[in-house]
Amino acid sequence: MQGKPINIFYAEYKAKVFDKRELEAKIFQYVLENPEYFGLCFYKDKDERTDFMCWLYPRMHKSIDRFKQGDATFDTYINSIVRYADKEFRGKRSFRYETESAIWDESVYDMMAAEEEAVYGLDSNAQLELRGKSEKSLCKNDKPQKTIANPKQTLILLLKSYYFVTDDLIERIAPSLGLTQKEIFEMIDELHSMRLGTEAKIQALKQRCFSQHFRCISIEKRLRNTDKDSIYYKTLNDKIKLHRTRLIRMRQRLKCMRIDASNRQVAQVLGVSKGTVDANLHAIKKRLG
Hints:
Blueprint: H1 5-14, H2 20-33, H3 46-66, H4 74-102, H5 108-115, H6 126-138, E1 139-140, E2 143-144, H7 151-160, H8 167-177, H9 181-194, H10 196-224, H11 231-256, H12 263-270, H13 274-288
Antiparallel strand pairs: 1-2
């Protein structure tokens, strides 16, 4: 693991030359001084760079403990963490820009109200339904059950719903499952790795849906301020119909994309047969009605 500075930092950390806090400081200093090494060519502005580093910190803090020595070096691992955080940060920044451009003179409150309108609303959102079932099964009144009747089934359900699982939930439920938080995090990280391509497609389609939604809002606003007898009104009216149809189709595609892990993937992570996962999920479904 020698050679690259980040690998050297980690080797010294493992040798107890310094603690985790100093390791984080060294990594952050290296990121700041070598942004091109991590593909961070977008942050020329000092304030923007500071915002990104604040965004990166909590992800870096948690990721260090999750690193497992194997095929990838620590340098490669940290590089992937920084690049993923960069992509996530730029995605949120792009989303904010789209919001401001599409509804330039409306407040955030107005935007949220528009999201609730029937024309844009989602009917029976499968992802929210999945989240509701997992939370209902795993916790009660935002607190973990003192005892879990069937830890194995609960773990399978948690891994099926891995996309929605929070660090706080893992912290509260791990003791009842007879596992450490690190063990559960490793399972979830493995599922993320398996489904990296699918997650990227889902995220990209979500961004397209957001942009299309705001496009509909901006066209609708112009339509309200246009004379109904004008040719421009007819043009806008045709355009809003077209964009609404596109938005509906895009959301239908998003709704059909599989957000949960497959039974085979869960079985692979747990080291059991797919039939075992199938049977346990069938028992859960039967019990929940």
